[in-house]
Amino acid sequence: MKKLIILSMLAIFSYNIEAQVITKPNLYHENWFSINPASANSANLLSFNSSISSIGIDKAPQVSRLFANGSISENSGIGIKMQMDKRGQFNSKNISAAYSYKLIIGDNKKHIINAGIAMGGSFDNFDINGIDAETNDPLINYNSYSKKHFTAEIGFSYNYKHLNVGATVFHKQNEYNSIIAYSSYDIKLLQEEDFILTPIVLYHQMPEGMGQFDVTAKIKHKPFWTSLTYRSNNNLLMVLGTNINIFRFSYSYEYNNMDVSAFTGGIHEIMLSYSPDFSKKAEGKLVEKDDDSDNIKL
Asked: What is the dihedral of CA 82, 272, 204, 201, to 10 degrees?
């Protein structure tokens, strides 16, 4: 009973603050399309992402996501996003389709601007089944509902050499608007060794005036990478990942340093990706692309 009470408190707390918001994955920098529809044409990519809070009891908060995107022409791309968010008796399902267009400008054609839009729906539900309480409890009756909402995203990104800047505006009908803005820059540490340092800064403006900064330092040495992120809520996020030919695997652990840390553990998240853009076949062998593919060569 004590575990049920704790779970219910956490579910209601997290749902009111975050579950109605279409959450972003912790591994967003491994697939920018996950937070920006403008990146739909950046690569041909299929990614599965799942995160779970390690609170040691049944029905812990869990989010599963599927992203698929790719180019349909030299300048255009399409994609689809699906997300299922479960937090105790609360669950939310979201699906949207995206389109992006790329514009290359400048005499050297190194300035790349992408614009994208995504539209879809959100389906929120609260299920009282399994709650050991009186069904005529006004609090439970008040929170029992099933709602549908139209959702939309508008995003852009700008790339110049090793610089990447982007922003996205999220809209959920009759619920909220949310903004994400980010920037990253690749720095080669050693000329003779393929070590790349990528500082990443992201700001997420959420409903009710809440805002969150992520400051990340990512180090890559083909085909491996690792990163450390500090969040403005004092959480720490650690990531490990690797590419093997056309497959990518990433794992992250978020250490919870908030007031509810006495009741919860950290958040584990994985991302499995498949992309023919990671490497290409030449003379019967897989070789590295000219871009930042980070692959194992065979």
From this structure: -150
3-state helix/strand/coil string of the chain: CHHHHHHHHHHHHHHHHHHCCCCCCCCHHHCHHHCCHHHHHCCCEEEEEEEEECCCCCCCCEEEEEEEEEECCCCEEEEEEEEEEEECCEEEEEEEEEEEEEEEECCCCCEEEEEEEEEEEEEEEECCCCCCCCCCCHHHHHHCCEEEEEEEEEEEEEEECCEEEEEEEEEECCCEEEEEEEEEECEECCCCCCEEEEEEEEEEECHHHCEEEEEEEEEEECCEEEEEEEECCCCEEEEEEEEECCEEEEEEEEECCCHHHHCCCCEEEEEEEECHHHEEEECCEEEECCCCCCCCCC
Residue reference for tokens 């959480």: 235
Q: Mean pLDDT over residues 64-76, rounded?
A: 93
Q: Give pTM, 2 decimals.
A: 0.80
Listed in sequence order, the residues at least 6 apart from 204 whose beta carbon sits closer than 8 Å to its beta carbon are 24, 178, 179, 180, 211, 212, 214
Residues 217, 198: Cα–Cα separation, whole Å: 6
Question: 207: burial class by Cβ within 10 Å (0-12, 13-18, 19+)?
Answer: middle
Which superfamily does CATH assign the domain made up of 2-288 to?
A: monomeric porin ompg (2.40.160.40)
Question: What tens digit of pLDDT does each residue of 216-238 get?
Answer: 999 998 889 999 999 998 899 99
